[in-house]
Amino acid sequence: MKVVTTAQMRDLEAATAQRGLPPPALMENAGRAVAEAIARHYRMVGAHIVVLVGPGNNGGDGLVAARHLHDQGARVTVYLGQRAVQPDAKLDLLAERGVPLWRAEDDPDGHQLRALVAQADIIVDALLGTGISRPITGTLQRVLESLRAARRAEVRLVAVDLPTGLNSDTGQVDPLTPRADLTVTLGFPKRGLFEPPGIDYVGQLVVADIGIPYSLAAEMPVDLMTPALARALLPPRPPSGHKGTFGRVLVVGGSTHYTGAPQLAARGALRVGAGLVTLALPRSLSPAAALVEATHLPLPEAAPGTLGPTAAEALVEAARDYTVMVLGPGLGRALPTSAFIA
User: Which residue among 49, 173, 223, 332 has the highest number of C-beta atoms inside a 10 angstrom radius?
Assistant: First the structure.
């Protein structure tokens, strides 16, 4: 799965428009996907959902989501923070359904918003999306302060694309960024969702398909490791294979204070499918090795728990029988060990 920057996401949206799926259609797909994700994760019928709507496309996604949430049986209230008053078909569709609409400009002290948040079961954060580059101030600051003051611990917060105030490229967060329980990111996940401190604000991450062809992102350089990608990177295993077919790994490491590191490396080699894994440890540490799946090669020591030059000869001789050598986990920095490595 590709991970994109803000600029790359804009390029993907523009390329998608050239293929016949314009921004309004993407927005409709995005809002529907957010509503569907909420319906999969939470009880919808009768739930009171407050949708916080910002000034840009993220707010537009929130308006579409509000309509679909209403149509699925939720009690929806929309709170408009800093959204310009102008003809908007998305607002008209909500008004036709009788969805209550509040404007932050009519609620300067935030009293109404705090009351809505205090009564809500779910909050949808559609205030700001990608591209934030400066601290949040003004009306949106007041909205987020009211949200923080009135939100109860049991109220679930769903972020549209990413939590407001989280930088989609760096993962930096505004002091007022709310912590989401669920983030529905649109099209492709953004890099900032995986970078600290932003990763702690994301909650459960859902990547929603909004109609952008995956082929357009084929040349994007960063991938998110998934089980499917890991499986694709591993070579096929013939039915007639045995431990000699899949390679032999020699893990050389360990010292008095670091007995776990070589065992972790060996366990990793076993998990990715190596046929035979051998732990080569200082002789006095070998009995402490708890990895029963591995074989063991006790090496001569310069001092208890420390490898030195005499171990190199034994290791060079044994290494001829192995496909790969992993040298280093937990070796330490003792002077004899430096001579062993050299």
Answer: 49
The confidence score (pLDDT) of residue 194 equals 96
Torsion angles phi and psi, residue 207, rounded to 5: -100, 115
Residue 85 is predicted with a pLDDT of 62
CA torsion 55-57-63-65 (nearest 10°) is -140
Amino acid at 297: L
pTM (predicted TM-score): 0.81
Q: Are residues 31 and 174 in the same domain?
A: yes
Same domain, residue pair 252 and 219? no
**191/320 same-domain check:** no
CB-count exposure of residue 19 (10 Å: 0-12, 13-18, 19+): exposed
pLDDT along the chain (342 residues), means of 10: 94 95 96 97 92 94 97 96 80 96 93 96 95 88 95 96 96 96 97 96 97 93 87 86 91 93 95 93 80 91 93 92 95 91 86
Helix, coil or strand: residue 216: helix
Q: Which helix (H) or strand (E) holds 142?
A: helix 138-150
Burial classification of residue 252, based on how many CB atoms lie within 10 Å of its CB (0-12 exposed, 13-18 middle, 19 or more buried): buried
Name the token pair of 280.
């080569």
Q: What are the CA-CA distances from residue 289 to residues 104, 272, 281 (Å)? A: 63, 20, 9
Structural domain range at position 20? 6-226
Q: How far apart are CA 57 and CA 54, in angstroms?
A: 8
Give pLDDT, residue 74.
Answer: 96
Task: Please name the residue that has the structure tokens 């600029």.
Answer: 7
* Total number of residues shown for the chain: 342
What domain count does the chain have?
A: 2
Domain assignment present for 1:
no
Q: Which residue spans within the chain are E strands per DSSP? A: 48-53, 75-80, 101-103, 122-126, 156-160, 182-186, 204-208, 248-252, 276-282, 295-299, 301-303, 306-307, 324-327
Is the domain of 167 the same as that of 264? no
At 318 the pLDDT is 92
The tokens of 16 are what?
């998608």
